[in-house]
Each structure stands twice: as C-alpha cells, then as structure tokens.
Amino acid sequence: MQHWDSLWTNLHLATMQDGYGEIRDGAIAVKDGKIAWLGARAALPANYTADTLHDGKGYWLTPGLIDCHSHIVYAGNRSDEFEARLNGVAYEEIARKGGGILSTVRATRAASEAELMQASVTRLRHLLREGVTTIEIKSGYGLDLENEAKMLRVARQIGRDYPVRIKTTFLGAHALPPEYTGRADDYLTELIEHMLPALVAEGLVDAVDAFCEKIGFSADQTERVFQAAHRHGLPVKLHAEQLSDQGGAVLTARYEGLSADHLEYLSAPGIAAMQASGTVAVLLPGAYYFLRETKLPPIAALREAGVPMALATDSNPGTSPMTSLLLAMNMGCTLFRLTPQEALQGVTQHAAKALGLQDQLGSLAAGKIADFALWAIDRPGDLAYGIGGNPCVASVFAGCLNSFT
Ligand code: DI6
Ligand code: FE
Question: Between 20 and 30 A from 347 (CA), which of 16, 212, 283, 373?
Fold first, then answer.
C-alpha cells in the first residue's frame, strides 16, 4: 500500500528524460514535496491512497522551468539608453561614458531594500506566471559590500516570500565601481579580501561569476576571482565571450565551472575545454536580440561536442530587459536554430545542471523535487513555438499547487 500526499492524473507528462520523455495519459504522485511515482496511468500500482487527487484536464505537465541566468534584482531602468542606441550609439560607448551598468549601479545603490524588492517582484511575477520555479539571481549592481549584500538579501528574501527556489550568484566583478576608476586590481583585492568573505559569512552566496570582457575584467583578473571562490568552496560561472573572445570559457572549464554564458565569440578551444569539464553553455538570445548582435554562438559545434546547452533570460536593464523564459525559448529556436526539444531541455534539464541542481531538479523522476509546470498545449513543442502567449495554467512548487486560472 502506497500513501501519497497528492496524485495527478488525466494529463500528459514531458519528463525531459531522454528528449521530451513523453508519457501520454500519465500519472504523477507526490510525497513530502518529492516525486514518489510516475508513469502511465494504466501502470498505477493496484494499492495506493492519495490525500489530494488532481484532475490534469488533459494538460501537459513538465518540470518547473528554470531561469539559470538572471539579474532581476535592480532598480531603475535604461529605456533612455535603448533610445540612444537606436540613434546610433554603441553599447561599449555608453558604458565608457559612465552609462550602461554604472547608471543601474547608481539607481540600485540609491534604492532601499524594500524599494529594490518591489522593483524586482514585478519582474519575478512575470517569470512565475510562466511556470518558472527556480531562478538564479546575480548581484553586480551594488559593487560595494553594503550594496552587493543588499541585492543578495533581496534575492534570498524572494525565495522566502514566493513559491520559487532562488540560487544566488555573487557578480561583484561585473563592472568597475566609480570609486575605483583606473584601479581594477585594487577593486578586485577589496572584492576578494573583504566583500566575498563577508557575503559568504552571511550565507548570501551560492556561486561566483564575473564579466570577462574588454569593458569588464581580463581573464587574469577573472582568475583571481575564481581562485577566491574556490578558497570558499564555491562553484564558478562566467559571462564569457559575449562581445569578444577572451579565453573565458577555457578558464571557466579549468575551474570546473558550472557554466559559461553568452558565448557568441566562443572558439574551438573553448568548446573542447567545456566538453572535457562538463561545463554547461548558457545561451542568452534576449541579449543577442536586444544588442542586435550578428555573430551567432557556435551552436552546431556545441551540439556536435555534446556540450549541454541551457537557455535563460539574462533579464537585466541594459542588454536584455526580458522577463519571459518562453520568449527566450522561442528566440533560441528562431535566432539560434535550436530545436524546440533542445529549447525545453535548455530551461529544464540543462538549466538545472548550470546551477548544479541536476540531481534534484530539471526532469521528472522518482526522488526529484516536485516542481512542475502545467500547460494548456497539444504537444511539448508548442512551448517554444508561440510568441507572446502564455499557456501556463498552474505551477507546483515542492508539491504545492499555484493555480493561474
Ligand atoms: N553582460 C550583459 O549582457 C549584462 N552584464 C553582463 O555582464 C549587461 C548588464 C547591463 O548592461 O546592465
Ligand atoms: Fe548576464
């Protein structure tokens, strides 16, 4: 006799084990927030009880979606820069003139924790409404201890207040704060010796990231940050090869990084290194689209090498003011030529791996956390197909239902 907390029937499952892993007319049971059983309804064990029976109404159930690269915690916006760029000013140019990331730094520093929370929740709600149940949130708009801590506290608070699992990433090496103009190495010393240890001591950091770029930090500077992360036992990831090839992916692979992200300018050695280290390629088509980039990440070569490809929103005010993971999936297909199946793997299984959560999340299997999304669709490929619609009817977070209808 099996006793379950809840049982879902009258639905189809996309388990995301081995492709879509479709189980038509399936059933899935939850016990203590985890998947206790799943399979075809016809194969349900003879003896079971379930406290709650859910009618899936013929919908499709997938793993809860995972946005594995976001900057949703920030204040202000940069629609003025959007307008400037449309008048011909380049992103690097805006950044050099103290705009770009630094204008968001000013707004974020000026915001109270409560104001920052309020601004972030607006973006959060859009993601949750699309069946997102796990979000990675980066700091990087504070650039000093007090304000990086404020951002990361807001990220943690979101995880306590809403039905979503939050992974925090310390991105202190996102840009050089104005106080350190011309003294990047001194800033990194401060970051390594004071900021990171204090943030770790407060339990605010799950991983460490940097912006390895001509307008960010060099590969050597990034390596100092990675060494510090490893001294604290933290995994690393990197904004790599977004605007130029800095060897960031090779470096990330050397530090067994969880992911290297963006990758438009990724070259063959980077692909080989990522393949060898099992580092996930996180593709961010929203930034590619918004910057009107024309150099495509080497998708075919990544696929050929078997490097897992994740997709994420990169939700940020400067280069990807996007709060739709479904749109990121569609863009992954239209702009990057991913298949709809790869797109869905990219926001489930491979996104989980990009956060080191592949044993708990990202596919439907007994023992995994019961985070689901429920969709009014005819087939899983519909999720990457639509533009602007939202077929999500409910999400389930650790076994608890959030209905959107
Ligand atoms: N790469 C990006 O696309 C964002 N950060 C980064 O390192 C841009 C962030 C911003 O412009 O605010
Ligand atoms: Fe980013």
Answer: 212
